Amino acid sequence: MKLQYRLLVLLVVATATLISHAQSTNIRLDPSTKPQPAFRQSLLGLADHTQDPLDATALAKFKALIQQNGWPTVVAVERDGVDAAGNLLLNSRADYDFQNDCLLLVFHQIYIDTDVRAVLTLNDRIEIAQGHPQQGGMLFTLTNGKVVLSQSTNAINAINQLRGDYSLPTVAEDIRRFQAAVDRGASLAEIAVPPRLSTKTYPIRLPALSSELEAMASKDQDVRNTYIQSGMKMNSPEQRAMIETDAANLARLRVIFQKYSFPSRVLVGYGGVNDVWLLVQHAATDPAFMAKALELARSPMLSGDLPRAKYALLVDRVRLLQGKKQLYGSQLKGEPGHFEIFPLEDPEHVDQRRALMGMEPLADYIRDTNAAYTPKPAAAVASSPASTSSTSSTSSHQ
After folding, report:
1. Is 379 a residue whose pLDDT tops 60?
2. Of 173, 171, 189, 191, nearest to 181 (Cα)?
């Protein structure tokens, strides 16, 4: 899937994540709140009478269905309808842009009515069919009795970062689990089969709040991207816009936390939880609030609602604000392209701690962050998506 960097700054935090909206204005999520039997039957009928890949006529029919109705939800077309749409999308390889537009919406539905492993597997199968490396590391094979990724790649850190962003284990952890089963005599085809794309529906209880958090996070990202690309000049209009946005978001966060604590996935969805995390990162003008948010974030981290790597970053930020050394080395100082870490507790074992939190080795993190922070022309930022990862490193510049 084509991906794009979303850069944060607090004083600076940088991360890359999925674009939150489809690239085409003709594609959206199905807004239906009731069953759409005609839509479901059209999807099932098309899936039953098409080939791999879809020919031009079938592809045109599928695109017309999606453009007219939106990407299907379980509420609208039931589970078999969503599964059929996923298979049709996989076979729509003649139109990679259309596949990407739809995939962004499929990712949006993770933990609502789609399975995260199935989504990453679908994405990997589409990428490989298009001649690209897999991005989620979901496809494995046996080589001389050893479980390995089915396609060699030099982007294992990016793969693990993407997995971590959805609270999944690293590739190495999956390989250990699969290898143990194979050594006991199991078939890799049996143990590595992905689940169905669809799940039962887990509706978000507070959709208005979830949408508000998404808008707040989007504004946060916009002002930070502008600040970074302007060269991160002190006392500049771009910095003032960022500070004003942070102040407004912090005031709203205080109200939200007072009413809901750290909002859970049940309340605001997986994306909403991660939007809250992003906004908390930039509340450093209120260290007491950040410390309380960290305390409340432990529960969603343990439940899988909040990725371990993001929790680790918040740990480091709060520790530095309290005058302590960081544990995971996520906080950096310096100039774009020349960052170095803030003081680190027990540096000899930092990579072990990072591995436990699903983070890449520290040296790789510093290298990737320096590359991500190198200012680019505005036109390049707007038009050049990242090619392999939806989650980059996270850093801080104070």
Report:
1. no
2. 191
Q: What is the DSSP letter of 349?
A: G
Neighbouring C-beta atoms of residue 388, cutoff 10 Å: 18
pLDDT digits (tens, 9 = 90+) for 148-165: 999 766 678 788 888 988
For residue 64 the two structure tokens come to 């017309």
Give the Cα separation of 205 and 25 in Å (integer).
27
Residue 311: what residue type? Y
Burial 174-204 (b: 16+ CB within 10 A, else e): bbeebbebbeeeeeeeebbebeebbbeeeeb
Q: Rg of the chain over CA atoms, in angstroms?
A: 21
The confidence score (pLDDT) of residue 371 equals 81
Quick check: helix, strand or coil at residue 1? coil
Predicted pLDDT of residue 2: 52
Q: Which helix (H) or strand (E) holds 340?
A: strand 338-341
- For the entire predicted model, the pTM comes to 0.80
- Cα–Cα separations (whole angstroms), residue 202 to 110, 133, 206, 387: 10, 32, 12, 31
Q: How many residues does the chain have?
A: 398
What is the CB-side half-sphere exposure of residue 230 using CA atoms within 13 A? 18
Residue 387 confidence (pLDDT): 35
